[in-house]
DNA sequence: ATGCCCTCGCAACGAGGA
């Protein structure tokens, strides 16, 4: 079973890229972020024609998350994180697929920091961490995957000194990520590539892709029960080089039965 | 210190992204 995450940066503008990648990579489960489409503008027909069932939580212009599953429909278990009834941003969706609980998330960017957007990021992160702790008590195979907007360590940044004051790399955010993982989650990309520079994002600016000036901000965290079955993890980097590419590349894990 | 590039939108001297 292959579980992937892909920040598409606009699902309708990016549909050809998404469909091509689905056909080539054949992931079983896909978490999408940044749909940038309202609920009624999700391209359900094209996704179904590609062989995937889907659930999604759209939002006009920004955010938006979806879970796709090949040959079956995801069974939705949650829409939105608990803890803030007033939060209207579409950033969390959860479903069961073939015996694995999938949490698909798009953590806030948080720039500029400090400021209200950074406060919202930390508050959202705290709610995610609280919910993740509850999930672990079930002792089930669980994957928490998506765009976390955090580079966990200096190995995850092409030039760490340039990012020290950025909301994606500030100490508070790295600490929050560390505390989440310390609950017992396995950072699968790092586990399979302990010393390597593995990036999932390259800015559109400054020829970042051409210079390999990347960041690792998309993560696949596995519960202990699921981590036992981890067979491989990697990034489909070449997708970033396609025409009309997203600024993120898909990242994935392979899980054995 | 800022723009660079890119998306969505109902058109902007824009917002947000990371």
UniProtKB/TrEMBL annotation:
The active site is at residues 106, 147, 248. It comes from Bosea thiooxidans. Mg(2+) binds at residues 7, 34, 147, 149, 247-248. The record marks 218 as: Important for catalytic activity. Belongs to the DNA repair enzymes AP/ExoA family. Keywords: Hydrolase, Magnesium, Manganese, Metal-binding. Coiled coil: none annotated. The keyword Transmembrane helix does not apply. One of its GO terms (molecular function) is metal ion binding. The record marks 248 as: Interaction with DNA substrate. Its cofactor is Mn(2+); Mg(2+). Residues 4-248 form the Endonuclease/exonuclease/phosphatase domain. SUPFAM superfamilies: DNase I-like. This is Exodeoxyribonuclease III. Probably binds two magnesium or manganese ions per subunit. One of its GO terms (biological process) is DNA repair. The record marks 149 as: Transition state stabilizer. PANTHER family: EXODEOXYRIBONUCLEASE III.
